[in-house]
Automatic annotation (TrEMBL):
<dbReference type="GO" id="GO:0005634">
    <property type="term" value="C:nucleus"/>
</dbReference>
<dbReference type="GO" id="GO:0006396">
    <property type="term" value="P:RNA processing"/>
</dbReference>
<dbReference type="GO" id="GO:0010468">
    <property type="term" value="P:regulation of gene expression"/>
</dbReference>
<dbReference type="InterPro" id="IPR036389">
    <property type="entry name" value="RNase_III_sf"/>
</dbReference>
<keyword id="KW-0694">RNA-binding</keyword>
<dbReference type="Pfam" id="PF14622">
    <property type="entry name" value="Ribonucleas_3_3"/>
</dbReference>
<feature type="signal peptide">
    <location>
        <begin position="1"/>
        <end position="22"/>
    </location>
</feature>
<dbReference type="GO" id="GO:0003725">
    <property type="term" value="F:double-stranded RNA binding"/>
</dbReference>
<dbReference type="GO" id="GO:0004525">
    <property type="term" value="F:ribonuclease III activity"/>
</dbReference>
<feature type="domain" description="RNase III">
    <location>
        <begin position="41"/>
        <end position="160"/>
    </location>
</feature>
<keyword id="KW-0732">Signal</keyword>
<protein>
    <recommendedName>
        <fullName>RNase III domain-containing protein</fullName>
    </recommendedName>
</protein>
<dbReference type="InterPro" id="IPR000999">
    <property type="entry name" value="RNase_III_dom"/>
</dbReference>
Amino acid sequence: MGRFIILTLFLLAKFSAFQAHAGNEVRAPILKPSSPFSLALETLQKQIGYTFQSIGLLRRAMTHSSFSEENNKALSILGASIIETSVSLQYLKKDMEASAKDLNHRISEISQVESSCSVDAMRLGLQKVIRVSPKTNASTPAVVCGAFRAIFGAIAMDTGKSDDAGKVFWSVHGSEVGGAAAL
């Protein structure tokens, strides 16, 4: 096994040296033209304050099921769980004696598709980013809220840590349970 690794490293070094001396001309790096979707994903990363290691996860988070079989449904479910857990942790840190009813109310308040979730999503402009079929309205609360939640599922998958996704959620939503941050 050790000989294989050494041989592989030797061949890689020789190949790299060959490529470096193969021609005298200086080659400019090949730049791929950016699509509007790619540019929108770059902007979104700046807005949320997180840069993806695997941009494919953010692409998937911004793809509705009407657009492709590879879509954000699973990431949205994961993101919803992350948001609920983050809300629970923050609320209980503030008031460990809170009743289960109060805690459920706080979770419900932030998770409501028609209010908090879609407000956060629209503030980010997700209705302009999410890919949907021509027959689907990207501005409906369910569509933008699903994309919003999927962002946090994608972050958790990207880092392998739900806590990282929860921190980004609070920076986007706002530091208070029930409050929304201005971007």
